[in-house]
Amino acid sequence: MGTHVIKMPDIGEGIAEVELSQWHVKVGDLVVEDQVLADVMTDKAMVDIPSPVHGKVIALGGQPGEVMAVGSVLISIEVEGAGNLKESAAPAPVKEAPAAPKVEAAVESKPAVAAAPRPAAVCQSPMVAREADERPLASPAVRKHALDLGIQLRLVRGSGPAGRVLHEDLEAYLAQGRSNASAPAAAAYAQRNDEEQIQVIGMRRKIAQRMQDATQRAAHFSYVEEIDVTAIEELRAHLNEKHGASRGKLTLLPFLVRALVVALRDFPQMNARYDDEAQVITRLGAVHVGVATQSDVGLMVPVVRHAEARSLWDSAAEISRLANAARNGKASRDELSGSTITLTSLGALGGIVSTPVLNLPEVAIVGVNKIVERPMVVKGQVVIRKMMNLSSSFDHRVVDGMDAALFIQDIRGLLEQPATLFVE
Question: Exposed end of the chain (fewer CB within 10 Å): N or C?
């Protein structure tokens, strides 16, 4: 028997160190070739580290949350033969994934090495025993759902990627009447003294760092404008009725992307990046629109490249593709970087007003609030109109307040008179 040492690979882009986000194996586990061993976090995305060999894990090189240098020992695996202990090598090809990856490996037939355990099937018992201090993988929404139901999450078997507990796992747990007798559902007015400590690592750490950096470095100011979207909503409904079956349904987002493209022709200073160390503003002709997207691991911003050259349906298809890729953990680093201006929307939960944080080094971000019907005075008559606010933020070091207001007013005019979106 020998030892195969896997070093932290060079992921590229001049990255010298990465954060170890999560292990998918532990000491003593049998692994197979191409099985995902760990997730590491770069500045832009989560990356899977696969195993290049079959064998048994004998040592782990770090703990989740630890920052490790490229070339440092990541994991040691006992293998048949001499191994590579004297000359360690990085595992070949690394698969990108900005969300928690699937750990199921393609099991090949190899002598004397047992296949790694496969993820639990949904049909198995929804209850599982974990250590009291073991924290299962689950999104914040699932954790709140479990708390509301009075369920101890560590008792629920997860059927998602890497054993992540999903909403349907909670329902399956309840359906079998397995709720923990020692922890009944809390009464509405019962005192509570429980605490939960959550380590800020991986994507959540990167988000926190970027948000803190943005608010400390940029001189934020926000501007809010009310927009009558009745006409554009009527156009959207008409286009969906006429072409939805053949071209796909349109949401409001591709119209907003088109409005950005047209308005930026007169306000190129908004489509820019500011290097505050070199004191250089770079205005770009290409409009690469970042579309803020919520995923289980946090906020991501996939990029619709060259929005200036896309039709409504082309933009809609690309927005949908990128959003699905981000939520499913399949967006690449290139798809998550390079934006020149960002569009952020909470959809139906958009509220009345928001103050979005800039996506540095960009100098403008346009925030979309929810559409509501309100009585408005039009030509002396009170009528019901569909109204929506745009809550946008700018970097006051680069963008003057008057220019920001005129830019948003231009977008307002385009959306209220949607034919102007397509007049060249």
Answer: C
| Res. 121: pLDDT tops 80 | no
| Bigger pLDDT: 104 vs 227 | 227
Residue 88 has pLDDT above 90, yes or no: no
| Distance in angstroms (rounded) separating the CA atoms of residues 233 and 51 | 51
Q: 291 in helix, strand or coil? A: strand
Q: Which of 48, 79, 110 is the last residue of a domain?
A: 79
Q: Residue 223 domain-assigned?
A: yes
Task: Name the DSSP class of 351.
Answer: -
Active-site residue, selected from the candidate residues 43, 148, 266, 400: 400
**Tally of domains within the chain:** 2
Which of 167, 220, 243, 396 is catalytic? The answer is 396
Domain-ending residue, one of 79, 95, 117: 79
Q: Is 396 a catalytic residue?
A: yes
Name which residue leads in pLDDT, 271 or 85: 271
Q: Is the pLDDT confidence value at 14 over 60?
A: yes
- Catalytic, 400? Answer yes
State the sign of the Cα–Cα–Cα–Cα dihedral 210, 215, 220, 226.
positive
286 found inside a domain: yes
**CATH label of the domain that carries residue 31:** 2.40.50.100
* Residue 355, in any domain of the structure: yes
Which stretches of 43-197 are assigned E, i.e. beta strand?
A: 46-50, 55-60, 67-69, 73-79, 95-96
Sheet containing strand 364-378, strands side by side: 220-228, 381-395, 364-378, 341-345, 289-291, 303-304
Say if residue 11's pLDDT is above 80.
no
Predicted TM-score of the model (pTM):
0.67
Provide the domain limits for residue 354.
215-421
- Interacting residues of 192 by C-beta distance below 8 A, sequence separation 6+: 186
